[in-house]
Write a structure and sequence with these properties.
- The chain is an alpha/beta fold.
- The protein folds into two domains: 350 residues, no CATH class; 148 residues, no CATH class.
- 57% of the residues lie in helices and 8% in strands.
- Strands 1, 2, 3, 4, 5 and 6 form a six-stranded mixed beta sheet that branches.
- Helix 3 crosses helix 4 and helix 7 packs antiparallel against helix 8.
- The longest helix has 26 residues.
- The chain is globular, with a radius of gyration of 24 Å.
Length: 517
């Protein structure tokens, strides 16, 4: 490797390590958001699979908390490290396709995009999916160019680990197959037995999820089909399209997203690149995006779902506009606008989770609503439990599974908590608890919807009037702000009704295990 190439490689590593250090620091500075608390709760009930997602998020958080304790830092550590691995593998692919200078600019852009930072700083399956996708993309490219048996096995390894992280990974082999079929130089690789051996290898890695689902009426796949709108009677709607496109503009940044659309839509924009290389970058990003776009005409698509499809797209942007070789003034201006827009959106949000920098009203400040006051609420719930006639036989619950998990993490002593799902949606708590475990016991619980106390009271012999708890924060702009109103409920003599009860007998999510008392 030439000296200049080595310098760019070192610089790329420094950028990724610096971003890793910053995220490690920030990760310990704010309370768990509800979804993070939910995934942490999974670690207390380790299994081969879960209702919502594959088990990797629970397994890795459990490992981190066993080493570093039950802290926010430990809960987020797997995804923070995962983002660094994602960045490195994406840069490796950029270097292999173009140069280490291109890889450096790719790495810089990756650290500034809000979608990537969110996946790193918030412990969700996306933060583990992304490194698996990037690694599979790198080894997949080496597989079809080097025709190496070892590379096909590495591709299968990362594909299998990706499936254990999040089911979006299933788009990877579909995209790779489309790439091979539509690129003449790659087609002959399908004549080898090694791609198929790699696929079998990945399915062996994924087999724990299949075992768990076979024992639980395929509950996870029912959930995924429901999320995909299989029960939605309205085949085509425009209700979700604006939300989908708007979320992508924000999370990927408007400049990046529009540049990618330009590359995807207009073939003339890609003629400057070597055909097979740009073909790989194109087909490993476009098919996944098109699938989510089409689904948005039928069902709501959450903004983070398409995250992995941008991996190769970001390389394409860096290759086209970053100053990794002689560029005109116009190209450099576009690149500066790309970095500037990413930083302008991402950095304030990262600061906002630690300190209320932006003068936002609470209704617009999601970070406040999801991170403020859980520790205070946990102490108030514990105090209420101690005031009950028999504290040792009083269970704690939330009407949302995320809130039940927040109480599990932040109530002193981290007690077991339950979720009353009867009127909500099926979730993992339906697999852990049933009525007979707590029949006749007293309970202290929380919910956020006014008027729910009458409905919850029907599950108990009698109850007390709810107590209102206001979670607040101190803003440099507005002083003390009311962030959220929580209703504290005290019930006596639980009669049953923990598990979800479907309103429609044909609901695809319904299983005998979940709905039985």
């Amino acid at each position: 490797m030439k000296t200049t190439g080595r310098n760019y490689q070192v610089a790329t590593g420094i950028v990724i390590l610096a971003a890793l250090a910053i995220r490690l620091f920030i990760s310990s500075q704010f309370l768990l958001v509800p979804d993070e608390a939910n995934y942490w709760q999974w670690t207390r009930y380790l299994a081969l699979g879960y209702h919502d997602h594959p088990p990797m998020i629970a397994w890795t958080i459990r490992l981190a908390t066993e080493i570093f304790g039950q802290t926010e830092f430990a809960v987020r550590l797997p995804t923070v490290i995962g983002c660094a691995i994602f960045s490195w593998y994406t840069c490796l692919l950029a270097a292999r396709l173009f140069s280490w200078r291109c890889a450096l600019h790719t790495g810089i852009l990756l650290q500034l995009i809000l979608l990537i930072n969110g996946s790193a700083l918030i412990a969700t399956p996306d933060g583990l999916l992304l490194p698996c996708w990037a690694a599979a993309c790198y080894h997949g490219y080496r597989s079809i160019t080097d025709r190496s048996a070892a590379q096909w096995l590495f591709t299968g390894l990362w594909f299998g680990l990706g499936l254990l992280s999040k089911y979006t990974m299933v788009l990877f082999p579909a995209s790779l197959l489309v790439c091979i079929l539509f690129t003449r130089e790659y087609r002959t690789c399908l004549r080898s037995i090694w791609p198929w051996i790699g696929l079998v290898f990945s399915l062996c890695i994924f087999s724990p999820v299949l075992v768990w689902n076979s024992q639980n009426e395929w509950a996870t796949f029912r959930h995924v089909l429901f999320q995909g709108g299989v029960d939605n009677r309205e085949l085509v709607t425009l209700s979700y399209l604006g939300d989908f496109l708007g979320s992508q503009l924000l999370l990927v940044t408007p400049v990046c997203f529009l540049l990618l659309l330009h590359f995807w839509i207009f073939p003339a924009s890609r003629v400057k690149f070597p055909g097979p290389k740009v073909s790989y970058l194109l087909w490993m990003s476009l098919p996944g995006f098109v699938i989510f776009l089409l689904l948005s005409f039928h069902v709501r698509i959450y903004g983070n779902w398409p995250a992995p499809v941008y991996t190769t797209g970001i390389i394409l942007i860096a290759a086209a506009y970053a100053p990794w070789k002689s560029r005109g003034i116009k190209m450099n201006a576009i690149w500066k606008a790309t970095l500037g827009a990413a930083a302008l959106i991402s950095l304030p949000v990262m600061i906002q989770v630690v300190y209320p920098l932006l003068p936002l009203p609470i209704d617009l400040d999601r970070t406040a609503r999801e991170t403020v006051g859980w520790d205070i609420l946990g102490k108030k719930v514990e105090a209420a439990v101690q005031q009950m006639p028999t504290p040792e036989a009083t269970f704690i619950f939330g009407l949302r599974y995320q809130y039940a998990s927040e109480l599990a993490f932040y109530t002193p002593g981290q007690p077991k908590t339950l979720s009353i799902n009867k009127w909500a949606r099926p979730n993992v708590y339906d697999f852990w608890f049933h009525d007979s475990m707590v029949i006749g016991q007293d309970a202290v619980g929380i919910f956020t919807y006014p008027g729910m106390e009458d409905r919850v009271a029907t599950l108990f012999e009698h109850s007390e009037p709810v107590e209102e708890i206001i979670l607040t924060r101190k803003s440099p702009w507005f002083g003390i702000q009311n962030v959220q109103k929580i209703y504290l409920f005290r019930g006596y003599g639980f009669k049953g009704g923990l598990r979800w009860q479907p309103q429609n007998n044909n609901d695809i999510r319904a299983t005998l295990h979940q709905t039985s008392p």
